[in-house]
Specification:
CATH topology: Lipocalin
Strand content: 35-45%
Number of strands: 10
Largest sheet: 8 strands, antiparallel, barrel
Number of domains: 1
Structural class: alpha+beta
Strand order of the largest sheet: 1-2-3-4-5-6-7-8
Order of helices and strands: HHEHEEEEEEEHEE
Shape: globular
Radius of gyration: 18 Å
Oligomer: single chain
Length: about 180
């Protein structure tokens, strides 16, 4: 029995690393990725998200590339009855498709076809426990059943549960630029 414990510990460590490993889009092209996206589905273990997920609607994410190759992301969400704009600058890392913000947020582009969909993985540190999230972005607000199924199949592989999923209904409430309250992260 004592000889079995080290191999069991090693096996558990490998399983934890396998769940944490996030694949990146091969040959990621930031210029093709830039533009406006709709956040159509999200899965996250963030306690704030879990409390609000049933009342959320689709939002927009506008992504631009800085001259340094960083991602400037502007998110517009309908929160508490108001359109709120959040701006985040993600600095590029040594890997294409992998970005960091203030050493507390990590964003990885797992998969994209650039013209229809993108799947992003995000980790946010800073609270008691880090939160993990997956986002399904689409160029328009309609998401196909096949794409949604593909997204759902990724959820457990990232250590999340299907109960943490919100498929966000389409909304045009925050599309007018003058209706936003701004925040920077």
């Amino acid at each position: 029995m004592p000889a079995l414990l080290p191999s069991l510990a090693l096996t558990l460590l490998c399983l934890l690393q396998a769940v944490a490993e996030v694949p990146l889009q091969p040959n990621f092209n930031a210029e093709k990725f830039a533009g406006m996206w709709h956040v159509t589905a999200v899965a996250s273990n963030c306690p704030v998200f879990l409390k609000m997920k049933d009342d959320m609607k689709s939002s927009t994410a506008t992504i631009s590339i800085t001259s340094e190759g960083d991602l400037a992301v502007t998110l517009v969400w309908l929160l508490m009855g108001k359109c709120q704009k959040f701006e985040v600058l993600f600095q590029h890392s040594k890997q294409a498709g992998h970005y960091l913000a203030q050493e507390q947020r990590e964003l990885q582009v797992m998969e994209t076809d650039y013209s229809h969909y993108a799947i992003l993985h995000e980790v946010q540190r800073g609270g008691q426990e880090p939160s993990t999230g997956l986002q399904l972005l689409t160029r328009d607000q309609n998401v196909s059943p096949q794409l949604l199924q593909k997204f759902k199949e990724l959820i457990p592989s990232m250590g999340l549960a299907e109960e943490m999923l919100a498929v966000l209904p389409a909304s045009d409430q925050c599309m007018a630029e003058g209706s936003w309250v701004s925040f920077s992260a």
